[in-house]
Design brief:
Distance between the termini: 26 Å
Helix content: 55-70%
Strand content: under 5%
Length: 178
């Protein structure tokens, strides 16, 4: 069985050192996910770029949380679920939304429920969404946002799958949200 290193700036491959320094500056720590991804600097770079692009989408913070956590919960990611609960908390997203996402219960409004349903349809049917896209559009979303959902799914597939096979340890900062 492969064993993965949770890298520090000092132990990381040269090409990953600046990426980890950026993580340290951005988060006040190096998230263990980034530290594990540092083994493959291009993977860490791609993940960080996808995250930056996800933040720049047309979705608000509640919707971003719905997207991230819907994928995390569907993939049963032991690391990303508490990490994104912490992120939701820092983004001032209602704890009720995060709890509903984690418990797979009703969200506070129809629009957020439609976003979660569409995201699950994208994941479960590998993009073959059929009539579900009409429900998504009728809930108030648009074509741009349908495409942006794929960006979030792509970002989370990277992190969730990597966490599954590397068994990334949960950071102390996220343990309170486990």
């Amino acid at each position: 069985m492969l064993k993965f290193t949770v890298h520090t700036i000092e132990s990381a491959p040269q090409e990953a050192k600046d990426l980890l320094k950026d993580s340290q500056a951005s988060f006040g720590m190096i998230p263990n996910l980034h530290a594990v991804m540092a083994e493959a600097p291009t993977v860490l770079d791609a993940y960080k770029k996808l995250h930056k692009l996800a933040l720049a989408t047309s979705f608000n913070n509640e919707e971003k949380t719905v997207l991230w956590q819907t994928v995390n919960v569907e993939h049963q990611c032991h690391y990303c679920i508490p990490a994104h609960s912490a992120i939701a908390h820092s983004m001032k997203v209602s704890e009720d939304i995060d709890k509903a996402l984690r418990d797979k219960s009703e969200l506070p409004n129809a629009k957020l429920n439609a976003l979660r349903a569409f995201t699950l349809e994208v994941i479960r049917n590998r993009g073959k969404v059929g009539a579900k896209i009409d429900d998504f559009i009728n809930a108030g979303y648009n074509n741009q946002q349908a495409l942006e959902v794929i960006l979030f799914v792509s970002q989370k597939v990277m992190s969730n799958y990597i966490n599954h096979f590397t068994n990334t340890p949960i950071d102390e900062a996220f343990k309170a949200f486990k």
